[in-house]
Amino acid sequence: MIVISPAKRLAANKSDSLLEATIPVFKKEADHLAEQLAKLSTEELSSMMKVSESIAELNANRFRNWNKNDAVEKRAIFQFEGDVFKHLGANDLNEDQIQYMNNNLRILSGIYGLLKPSDEMNPYRLEMGTRHNFSGSVSLYEFWGNKIAKELSDELGNAYLFNLASEEYFSSVSKFLNSEKIINFRFLTLSNGKAKVVGVIAKRARGEMAKYLIQNKVAANEGIEKFSALGFEFKEFKDNCYTFISS
Q1: CB neighbours of residue 169 within 10 Å
Q2: What is the DSSP letter of 244?
């Protein structure tokens, strides 16, 4: 199983993929959160989400019209448009690869908890690190508790979990999972003789790695070191973490 984070940017175009739409496993929880958020003013949303008034207004309307969404594309994997998703390139995968992706990739979500690529998703923006009184919980982390991790564990069984999500999102499940089965990734860029994580480049690399794992149907902890997209080269595998470096 591969896990990634969602993106803030959403696409407006429909994919011609034949992937059949499905219902999110935590749709009830998402509807409940949206109902609570719909009661907040634009100003309150702006303060809570730490976004501009225009972005807050857009999302206030989304929450108030939840499940009345008339977007031409409802499937999650084709809605997200950030760097990870652009480099994963779901629209460029063949139908066999898309089915493999749907079975083996999950998107962590602040409002939906966990999304399959095929899940119908209402447009939204809500970061996992958001703090607010959600039904008595002080944050989304507390609201979700171990629910997301339990669902992931049930789907995983004894398989490996390839973590390509950000720390903000993966911390919502990491402490509840078997760490021995989690494979992490680190993408370093050489700059002025020093190797460091460059956010934008690392996001692109996570998308490319997700695509690599899907196209090669990587299910075991082997073959990953052959990854070479974006000029990255394998550096080391230590403490269940693959480190790649590029210049």
Answers
A1: 22
A2: E
Q: Is the pLDDT assigned to residue 71 strictly greater than 80?
A: no
Query: Which residue do the tokens 């409002």 mark?
Result: 111
DSSP string, 96-156: HHHHHHHHHEEEEETTTEEE-TTBB-------TT-EEEETTEEEHHHHHTTHHHHHHHHHH
CA 206 to chain centroid, in Å, comes to 11
Identify the DSSP state of 49: H
Asked if residues 91 and 15 have their Cβ atoms less than 8 Å apart, the reply is yes
Average pLDDT, the chain: 94
> Which residue range is the domain that position 209 belongs to?
2-246
Residue 139: predicted pLDDT: 95
pLDDT, tens digit (0-9, with 9 covering 90-100), for 142-168:
999 999 999 999 999 889 999 999 999
Q: What's the number of domains the chain is made of? A: 1
Cβ neighbours of residue 228 under 8 Å, at least 6 residues apart? none
Is the pLDDT score of 125 beyond 80? Answer: yes
